[in-house]
Amino acid sequence: MLWIPQLTQDGSYTFFSEEFGEAFHSHQGAKAEAFEKFAEATRLAQKAQSNRLKLLDVCYGLGYNTAAALEVIWTVNPTCQVELYGLELDATVPKSAVAPALLQPWSATVQNVLTALATHHVCVRSHLEARLLIGDARQSIQTIRQRKFQADAIFFDPFSPRRCPQLWTVEFFQAVATCLGSTGLLSTYSRSAAVRSALIEAGFQIGTIPLERSHLRHDWAHGTVGALSQNSSLQPLSQMEQEHLHTCAAIPYRDPTLNDSAEKILERRAQEQRSSTAESTSSWRKRWGIA
Ligand SMILES: C[S@@+](CC[C@H](N)C(=O)[O-])C[C@H]1O[C@@H](n2cnc3c(N)ncnc32)[C@H](O)[C@@H]1O
Question: Whole-model pTM above 0.70?
Answer without folding.
Answer: yes
